Amino acid sequence: MDSPVQISRELSKIDLNQLKLVLKGVNLMDLHLQYRGEGNENLVFSLADIKYVLRLRKSAAAVRLETENENLKLSFLYHYFIVRTFFANIFSLVPIIVEIPMEEINWLNEFFLKQRPDFRKEKQLFYNVAEVYPDLAFLPLFRNVDDHKCAEFLSMTPHIDFLKTHLSDEYIRHRNFVFSLFTNPAFRDQQVALKNPSNLDTLCVEIKPKQGWTAEADRLSGICPFCLNQYKKLSSQTVDSKSGYCPLDLFSGDSERMLRALKELIKCPQNNFRIFKDGNLVYSENGTSDLNSILCAWFDDEDVEKSINNFCYLLTKILTHEIPSGNESITFVCDPLEKSDRNLSTRINVELIEQILTMLETRCRQETSCLPDNSILGLILRLQKIDSAGLDAVRNFHAHHASEYDSDYGYVYNIISRIESRRPSKIINLNVLEAYLLSTAAKDLSILMSFRRTAGNEISSNIVVQDHSERQYEAYVSVVDVGPKPISCLKKHKKRNENVINSFVAYHCASSAKENKIC
Questions:
Q1: Sorted alphabetically, which PANTHER family does this protein's record hold (predicted)?
Q2: Out of 3.30.200.110, 3.40.50.20, 3.10.290.10, 2.60.15.10, which CATH number does the structure's domain 4-135+143-194 have?
């Protein structure tokens, strides 16, 4: 077994050329592209004919190729060795890295220009290496090819020794499958013909669940970070009204609270809730289609309230469905705080906050029931809970150990090295900084849930659930947008937390100024 130092050296030597597939002669115009959405860093579009999505990085100007290659390599290693193994290769998808011709990138900028929101257009596509994922807006997913083609592809891949040692056969087969889809028209036509022979519709729901756990040192009694941040959004006029959604309800494990949380997301999606039907966006903060009509038709029920209840009930069944963990599942354990990092003074005016909290009509409920350990919500919450120290203690720890971290993301290689060197051990120890950064990533991810009615014995998913009417659905659920957080985010988070609390105080001081109750 290699030592962590040896493995770290191997990881640092990996070149993106070892991971990516070069798709020469590919014409994306022939694959029926659909704009799917974008965030601050990435633009996502679907290839509707082959049921895959491409995620491309954006920037305000052309960036150094070496920098982008290193960032994408790091993202891949983080997904494969950390996210995939924590979620037991069940609730996560590892991207296939592909290089597409540069002329296709120029064409994509023009093609999507009219579909993109104006406030996102300050960034464009300059980088021609993309991440490819199965399109979860459609079921069933196809992901494998036969072993012979897998072996044949391995022999064609340069510098494959490390990949053969550390990447699974399943991933290599899927990689080869994607290569064939893009480069072999006959194979592509064959797979398209096999897709969804029963012609059943698929609903796909995207949720950003946010923070279901806060370290005690960062916790304000009565209000969670998400609900606190609503006041900052009101102050900055990025929203017109406060959301009634509370992540603590969704992560509570209590069926009534979970249903209430989902209904509040439907009432006020903001950017935390979207619904797709067969790949088309039908509901989001921007409205789009009539959700009531869609759900009534989906559940064959003209009663709108019953249809919404059935829909939310089905989502809770998927979110809490427990799947036995695989052999690769790992558990992170945070090492205890050093004495110098304990009992730090708080920056928060606790007395003022507590006085304001007494004026709130509703307060966030910290108490929880029991989420199934190996459900997707249970695993996300477990990853969030590895931060038990809080931001101030983590910043203090980093101040004492800054010399040990020569880059923003060096900790990622340290964690991967520990995972690989300690196999078959499934317990991985983290220091408080590493725990905080992994926990932060788990507080900023999205969940994609896809489901469709089952057709007889044709079930391709390992999740099968029933609605209130005992109709059976097959489902697939995965975490997405789980990116590594830089160490430099500690400073940003300190400023963010201060701004959020100041907005909260200012909002309530302004609303009560006439009565001279506080402030």
A1: INOSITOL POLYPHOSPHATE KINASE 1, INOSITOL-PENTAKISPHOSPHATE 2-KINASE
A2: 3.30.200.110
CA atoms of 143 and 122, how far apart (whole Å): 35
Is the confidence at residue 88, as pLDDT, over 60? yes
Beta carbons of 224 and 257 less than 8 angstroms apart: no
Q: Where are the domains of the chain?
A: 4-135+143-194, 204-506
Say if CB 95 and CB 55 are below 8 A apart. Answer: yes
Q: Which string of DSSP letters, residue by residue, matches 129-196?
A: EEEEEE-TTSSS------HHHHHHHHHHSTT-HHHHHHS-HHHHHHHHHHHHHHH-HHHHHHHHHHS-
Decide: helix, strand or coil at residue 44: strand
DSSP, collapsed to helix, strand or coil, labels residue 247 as helix
Helix (H, G, I), strand (E, B) or coil at 244: coil
Tokens 């990085």, located at residue:
57
State the pTM of this model. 0.92
Query: What is the enclosing helix (H) or strand (E) of 57?
Result: strand 52-59
Position 45, amino acid: F
Query: Exposed, middle or buried by CB within 10 Å (0-12, 13-18, 19+), for 210?
Result: buried
The string of DSSP codes covering 215-229 is: -GGG-BTTB-HHHHH
Tokens of 465: 């659930």
Instruction: Kindly report which listed range (59-63, 156-160, 503-507) carries the lowest average pLDDT score.
Output: 156-160
Question: Pairing between strand 427-430 and 331-334?
Answer: parallel
Place of tokens 């988070």: 493
Residues ≥6 apart with Cβ < 8 Å to 407: none
Residues 20 and 425 sit within 8 Å (Cβ to Cβ): no
Q: What is the rounded distance in angstroms from the CA atom of residue 41 to the CA atom of residue 57? A: 6
